[in-house]
Amino acid sequence: MTLILDGRETAKEVRREVKEGVAAFRGRHGRPPGLAVILVGEDPASRIYTRNKARAAAKCGMFDVLHRLPDTTGESEILELISALNADPRIDGILVQLPLPAAVDARRILAAVDPAKDADGFHPLNLGRLVLGEEGPTPCTPLGILTLLDRYEIDLEGMEAVVLGRSNIVGKPMATLLTARNATVTVCHSRTRDLGFHTRRADLVVSAMGRPERITGDMVKEGVVAVDVGINRLPDGTLVGDFHFESVAPKARAVTPVPGGVGPMTIATLLANVLRLAGYRVRSSE
Ligand code: NAP
User: Fold this and answer.
1) Pocket of ligand 1 contains residue 169 by CB under 6 Å
2) pLDDT at position 215, please?
């Protein structure tokens, strides 16, 4: 029987724990942890993501602000806002929703966020810490995937893991985290010659390509653990992942659905990151 890794239920559990942590933090420090979300432009998916993130923060008792800026906003204006949020004592976590408009240098923007308030773990210093195995905020999607696998007691030690995609926000940190957990990791990308050669020998495939149903049942081995990060909308409006669920799931030992798998874990992990950052901040000022 294939195990469905239920991201919705697991995320609920994590959010419940965060809510308790938020109440305890508030009791101890007289204020809730605070999250600021910055959205530049009108990208419909980004609007939904940021609204969901801000709502989830409010629901678990955090202080939250959502800054919505028009896509004509210049880099200096965004940098000014970030600088104000860096200095704002109510804010423990800052999230800049990606992608930013093409005219804005995303690297400069992400680097301007105080690393101690870097809710997404995208600051170069924090990505460096991740590679070095040091403590710091970790990108939410890959960390959420590890949490999901842990809660279902999937042991990663010694696994042949294949990560499809090498983006800075999913693929690369995912590969680093899996390596740190003693999996043997292969990273594939658009120039990989034979994707199936790699996926067929994998115990764990994490796909973050954004290619609808690209990985079919004949490309995975019996007993694979299939983690689908991809969110793809088909022309008829259906949401599908990178795996062809109908042919992969019957062969898999465990699989994440789309929607309801990795997505909810990303948001829950963001909240956990903000709570952790709030804790670090008060400890470092004591
Ligand atoms: P991205 O920056 O576009 O990266 C996609 C990666 O996939 C790239 O490394 C690319 O290779 C690789 N790739 C593309 N087509 C490929 C192919 N045919 N064969 C092998 N590799 C291929 O995307 P991202 O930001 O990492 O996001 C990936 C997907 O995850 C998207 O669908 C996104 O919507 C989704 N996502 C979901 C969540 C969530 O919470 N569920 C969070 C973040 C992202 P190259 O490097 O060679 O171009």
Assistant:
1) yes
2) 98
